[in-house]
Design goal:
Length: 227
């Protein structure tokens, strides 16, 4: 049994309905508890059930984010970032006084979206690195991510029962992907059977002198997560 508590909201996960009911009854003896039944929505996270399994999405949250950016009817993008894009801290012009606040707000919103959207983790990590002094090129990159979100707002994670309980991980790195400090960004994805359970995209702490070294660091981070 697992409990996830956020302020006055509780998610209860149990393999036994009887045990869950007893816990709710026990909590009701000391607190004003209301059982809302099966989970459907929690902090922007939408949960739906089907014969295939449990689907986690943030579609309403995505649309709210697009509405904040006035991009609900924007032109769609098929990828969150161009494969040839090498953003720099000095590319473009400094944003006008009010725009950096909006930039930071939208990037923070995109970070929360990565709870169910590993496909945008790398791109969001890149634009997050310029919160201190965003420029027009960084703002364009954020808009590119939002255009991709507009096309894929219904995307999410499918958690399904499977006979295999094997843990597997995949990693990658873009060697010297940051032109300012020559540091690489590494990432990994960990699966429990067919289910993606954890992922990460982060700039590496030190400069790698070869693509092999950058890849080894990404593998080491994935291995540490597995352990």
């Amino acid at each position: 049994m697992y409990l996830l508590v956020y302020v006055d909201d509780i998610i209860l996960i149990s393999s036994s309905d009887a045990v869950a009911d007893r816990l709710v009854s026990a909590l009701s003896g000391d607190f004003a508890v209301k059982d809302l039944g099966a989970l459907h929505y929690f902090l922007g996270l939408e949960v739906s059930r089907s014969s295939a399994g449990l689907t986690l999405t943030q579609q309403k949250y995505s649309l709210d984010l697009l509405r904040r950016a006035s991009m609900l009817k924007c032109k769609h993008a098929t990828t969150p970032m161009s494969a040839s894009d090498r953003m720099s801290a000095l590319d473009g012009d400094i944003l006008s006084p009010d725009d950096p606040t909006e930039y930071r707000s939208l990037v923070g919103g995109l970070q929360y979206l990565t709870i169910t959207r590993p496909d945008v983790s790398y791109a969001v990590n890149r634009v997050y690195q310029y919160l201190h002094a965003p420029r027009t090129s960084h703002w364009s990159a954020v808009k590119r991510i939002l255009r991709y979100i507009c096309l894929t707002a219904s995307y999410g994670l499918l958690l399904q029962p499977a006979p295999s309980c094997a843990l597997s991980a995949f990693s990658d790195a873009d060697w010297a992907g940051n032109p300012d400090d020559r540091r690489s960004t590494g990432g990994y994805a960990v699966f429990f059977g067919p289910n993606l359970i954890t992922w990460n995209a982060r700039k590496q702490a030190t400069v790698s002198r070869s693509s092999t070294e950058a890849e080894y660091k990404a593998v080491a981070n994935a291995t540490a997560e597995l352990i």
